[in-house]
Amino acid sequence: MPSISRAAPIHFQPHNAHAHDELWVTLLEKGDLDEAIAECGAAIRLQRGNAATHCILGNALRKKHDVESVVAEYRTAIRLRPDLADAHHNLGVLLGAKGVARNHQQRDKKREADMLHQIKRRDFLQFTVAGTALGVGASNLGAVGADPRGSRLMSPGCRRTRVKVARIYLGGPGGGVWGKPNLDLQEEIRSYQAEFDTMKDQFSDVDFVVDQLVSFPRQVEEIKDRLRSADGILAIHVNADLRPLLTEILRVGRPTMVFAIPYSGHGWVELGAMRKQEAGAKMECMLTSDRKQLAIAIRPFRAIHHLKDAKILDLTTRSKHAQYASAVRSKFGTEIKQIDLQQVRDAYEGVSESEAKAEADRWIQGAVEVVEPTKEEIIKSCRLALAFEQLLEKEDATVMTVDCYGTMWDRTIKTPAFPCLGFSYLNNMGLGGICESDLPCAMTHILFQGLVGKPGFVNDPTMDESKNAIILAHCMGTPKMDGPDKPAAPYELRTVAEREEGVVAQVKMNVGQKVTQANLVGADLLVYFTGEIVDVPYTDRGCRTKITVKLDGDAENLWENWGSWHAPIGHE
């Protein structure tokens, strides 16, 4: 058999990328690392845009300990294919292991904060508690039924069903506690219950389907069926030997939040190792003296519950949406139902002129100014808004989305009016209105409402590296970005900027507001970044509602790796 050399296949096919591919694979198997890297580079030059090859080249360069080059290849792979899980995973591992984010320039210190986070390991637990500022700040569960004209909601984004939480206190006689071996368990539990009572509004949509003290693993075994019925398990460490009890709880397979205050014992030292095990994939921990964070601890369970019970109405004729709908139904339980234009027209005709005029008057009276739209156009938009509400009520759904510039567009919008103001109306009342049939944004909107009770602002981004900022713009703004029970932000009624027709709310959001932008990619990847609103531009460029967000991380790193056109941003 002739020896393998670079010249063998390339001599005959120098411009054949596949020939280079075959050769570098063979060279890598033989341990000829330098030659393999050279051939991989040749393959990339001949087939630019192949994300997988960049990822593989990064893997090869790791063996040469060329960290900066490895990072560059992984980032290129992510830019070319934002859903390439291997590249995300490998880059995250590399940054953590090598300390690149700590050992180089100041901008690199925040790169991990800008990284794309996979949710298939921790689902929503890491996103809420460890990974993003959405897990802090007040939620808006007190908004239930806040709008007297609105649909009755259990909580923003959820119509009727309650979140099921198993609340377990882990403690036992003789378990001791650091510095207080004679701890009164019942008194300690009563102190927690008193804390829960002070936050009743934060648990208004929660049923504690299990609520008891557990001292021995066999007690967990006895209630396993009840634990499996819960959306999540809140395990409050009082004083028991933590590992045996927690091991038994994790075998149930439900998302679990461990809450432990200081001096409850030394069991926390094992939590990190347990979380890395297969059984700990759905476990997150909050180690804090602030018992108010018990309300935050159950937010991931609420988000999971909302996704499971949510229903999205999608006005489109695109057949490709069926594949995405099937994937999210299988992963999260969310139902996406395609509806047709006639259903919307029928609902529109079912709204009386007087109802539409009354709603139009509310929008006009609440506006700082009505700039371009006529009263007639505002009434039509409000009539469609009320039709959307009726459709959602009839279908027991919570989110409406329209293929505005796709199958519902033919020189102008096919619906009786532009849907933009209708989307703002739904968002204001704790439901969901998403433009352009953007189903990933609709799913992320449901997440936002589950986590903090607030809607998202779907937007198109543009970068400003001179300010380490991103500008987020869209014609459809939501005045009640702080939640249905909070005051509306100032707004003007405008036309859709690029169409010079229709009606939209141009919203002036609050400078200084901390925000998180996120988007669900497929069913397994959640990408996000955080920042602070530093400006609300008022210019005739771009869409109507605009905010400039100074990034907590690095602008260059963000645009190199983001890759999402539409994405919603939410107030903390």
Your description of this structure?
- The protein is an alpha/beta fold and 572 residues long.
- It has three domains: 7-119, Serine Threonine Protein Phosphatase 5, Tetratricopeptide repeat, CATH 1.25.40.10; 159-304, Rossmann fold (3-Layer(aba) Sandwich), CATH 3.40.50.2300; 310-571, no CATH class.
- Helix content is 40%, strand content 20%.
- It contains 23 helices and 19 strands.
- The strands form four sheets. A six-stranded antiparallel β-barrel has the order 12-13-18-17-16-19. It has a five-stranded parallel sheet with strand order 3-2-4-5-6. A four-stranded parallel sheet has the order 8-7-10-11, with helices on both faces.
- Strand 14 (491-496) and strand 15 (501-507) form a beta hairpin.
- The longest helix is centred in the C-terminal third of the chain and has 21 residues, at 375-395.
- 47% of the residues are buried.
Describe the structure using short key phrases:
single chain, Rossmann fold, 5-stranded parallel beta sheet, 6-stranded antiparallel β-barrel, Serine Threonine Protein Phosphatase 5, Tetratricopeptide repeat, 23 helices, alpha/beta, 572 residues
